[in-house]
Specification:
outer membrane lipoprotein receptor (LolB), chain A, single chain
Amino acid sequence: MKKVIAIFILMLIIFGTFVLGMRLIKKTKKEKTYNSYCKIYGIYNNLKSYISKIDVLVTSNLSSRNYCLKEYYKSPDKYRIDCVSPDEIKNLKYIFKRDEVVFFSPFSSEPITLNTIPVEKNCMFLGDFFKSYYETQTGIAKTNKKTTNELVYETDVVRGCKRHFCQKLWFDKKTQLPLRLVTYDVNDKEVIRVEYTDFKLNENINDETFENF
């Protein structure tokens, strides 16, 4: 009888230790996620500038297209995109200025100004994502279930539409650098995927970079 009681008590101790250990592990994971969130928030809430190569996949009901671009951003509202590939768009440049976009082509001696900003622009720049994140108050951040080294931010799109309804932005927890930005339609289907490479944070970018060529 004493042996049975001893075994029972031992099992209770083992079980209690296991439960306590699991709780500590969960608490540690939550603390790490929160610490990562605070670091990333501190960096990108005061984002000054960045330069990055981006690979963009645009998907529609009919087809998908891949583009290689280089983007520049300088706070508070300076944006530029240089087209790298495919060949039919190579060397095209776009400068975004509040309510207009200036388009430069190697086949034209004069720039072309459009008075409408393409909605796709809001799906490629980090500044626009965080504007939506803070303005809509629908944003959340959580650890990627598939890869614990990644932190995922989610938000609705400011002035979004059925095709550009919500977004997710993945960060590397260790480097605090962005990995990819994905825009989904109202049916949760991926429509624009941006993969960031060679990301340079808070680069010293001259204002002339965003002026007419």
